[in-house]
Specification:
Elements: E1 8-9, E2 15-16, E3 25-31, E4 38-44, H1 45-88, H2 91-100
Antiparallel strand pairs: 1-2, 3-4
Length: 104
């Protein structure tokens, strides 16, 4: 059973929706983040808000994962650079820097 919401506007005292006469009535095109179905439909932006917020949250999670992955790669590259720097020093300087933890 599919529930259909009534087209009453909460911004206009729950009068019937004005649809294309309203600035908040818009067309959304894309993929529904809940079902994966293609969406190409008009509707009230207030009604689209939950779907758009779910998609925004999903995109933020993907961004966070990409940043974490980038950070991990930078840590690896930094360690490799440190090892290269230490190997270029004379042996007595390598030991001194390793003991003191001073790589500058």
């Amino acid at each position: 059973m599919k529930l259909e919401a009534k087209a009453n506007c909460p911004l206009d005292g729950f009068k019937p929706c004005r649809q294309l006469d309203c600035a908040w009535f818009m067309k959304v095109r894309g993929t529904n983040p809940n079902t994966g179905e293609e969406v190409d439909d008009y509707g009230c932006s207030m009604a689209w808000l939950p779907v758009l917020m779910i998609e925004n949250s999903r995109q933020q999670n993907q961004t966070g994962a990409a940043v974490e992955s980038f950070r991990n790669e930078m840590v690896k590259a930094n360690k490799a650079s440190q090892q290269l720097f230490l190997s270029s020093l004379p042996p007595q300087e390598q030991n001194k820097n390793l003991i003191n933890g001073n790589l500058q």
